[in-house]
Amino acid sequence: MPSGLVALLDDIAGITKLAAASLDDVGAAAGKAGGKAIGVVVDDTAVTPRYVIGLSPQRELPIIAKIAAGSLRNKLLILLPAALVLSAFAPWAITPLLMLGGAFLCFEGAEKVLEALSGESHAEVETAPMDAAELEQSKVKGAIRTDLILSAEIMAIALADVAESPIFTQGVVLAIVGIGITIGVYGVVGLIVKMDDIGLHLAERRSAATRAIGRGLVKAMPALMDFVSIVGTAAMIWVGGGILVHGLEGLGVHEPAGTIHHAAEVAMHATGSLGGIAGWLVRAIASGLFGLLVGGVLAFGLHKIRH
C-alpha cells in the first residue's frame, strides 16, 4: 500500500511537471507571438488617442474603457474562433491572409506618409452636427471598427507563429496575446490622453520642481503625440513589409528575401561584435523600404481609381 501511494505521488509529480512545462511553452509562445505583433501594437496605440480628441476630459477614460471592451470582444468572440477554424480546416490560407493584412498595413502606412508630404488628409469628415452623446457613440464605434482590422492582423501574426501547435495551445496563446495586448495598449492610451491633466495637476503644486515637471508634461504632449504617430507609421510599414518578404519566401519567391539576407550577413561580418544589431537593422530597414514601395504603389493605384 505505501509503495502504491508513493507511485501515485510520483505520477502526480510527473503530471505536475508536464503541466508546468506546457504552461512554460504556452507562455513562451505567447511572448514570441506578441513580440512579432509589436508593430501593429504600436500603431494601435498611436491611432486610438485621436478618438477622444474634442470630447469632454471627464469622458476620456470611460470612452477608452468602452473601446477596450469592444477590442476584447473583437479578439475573443470574433477573431479567436475564426482563427481556430481557419487553422483546423484551411491552414494553407494563413500565409496568403497574413500577406493580405501585411499589404494593408503597407498601404495604410504609405498613405500616412503621402498625406504628411502633400499636406492633404483622406480622413472621413463629419457631415452632420451631433450632440455630445451621439458624437461619443460615433467615436467609440469608429475606434472599435479600426481596432477590428488591427486586431485581426495581431491575431493572424500570432496564429502564424503557433500554427504547428495543437489546437488547444493555439487557442490559449491567442487568448493570452489578445488579452495582454489589449490591456497594454489601452493602459498606455489612457496614460497618454490623461498626461496633460496630470501635468496641470502637478503645475498647481507648491514645489517649484514639481510645477516645472507639470508644465513640461503639458508642453510635451503635442510633441509626444506626433512622435507616437511617426513611430506607429514606421512600425506599420516595417511589419507589413516584413510579412510580405517572409510570405513571398514561404511561397517559393526568393526575392527580395535573398537580397535582404545577403545584405544582413555582409553587415554582420563587417561590424564585428555589433553584428547582431547591424544585421537586424539592415533587415528592418530593407523590409520597411519594400513595404513602403508596395504600399506606395497600392495607395497611388487606389487614388487613381478613386479619381
Name the poorly predicted regions: 8-25
Oligomer: single chain
Please estimate the helix content: over 70%
Shape: globular
Order of helices and strands: HHHHHHHHHH
Strand content: under 5%
End-to-end distance: 85 Å
Structural class: mainly alpha
Q: Major β-sheet, in short?
A: none
Question: Short description, anyone?
Answer:
With 307 residues, the chain is an all-alpha fold. The protein is built from ten helices and no strands.
Write the layout of secondary structure elements.
Layout: H1 2-36, H2 38-47, H3 60-89, H4 94-118, H5 132-161, H6 167-193, H7 195-203, H8 208-250, H9 257-270, H10 275-306
Helix pairs in contact: 1-5, 1-6, 2-5, 2-6, 2-8, 3-5, 3-6, 4-5, 4-8, 4-10, 5-6, 7-8, 8-10, 9-10
Structure description:
- The protein is mostly helical and 307 residues long.
- It is built from ten helices and no strands.
- Helix 3 (60-89) packs antiparallel against helix 6 (167-193), helix 8 (208-250) packs across helix 10 (275-306) and helix 9 packs antiparallel against helix 10 (275-306).
- The radius of gyration is 23 Å and the shape is globular.
- The model is unreliable at 8-25 (pLDDT under 50).
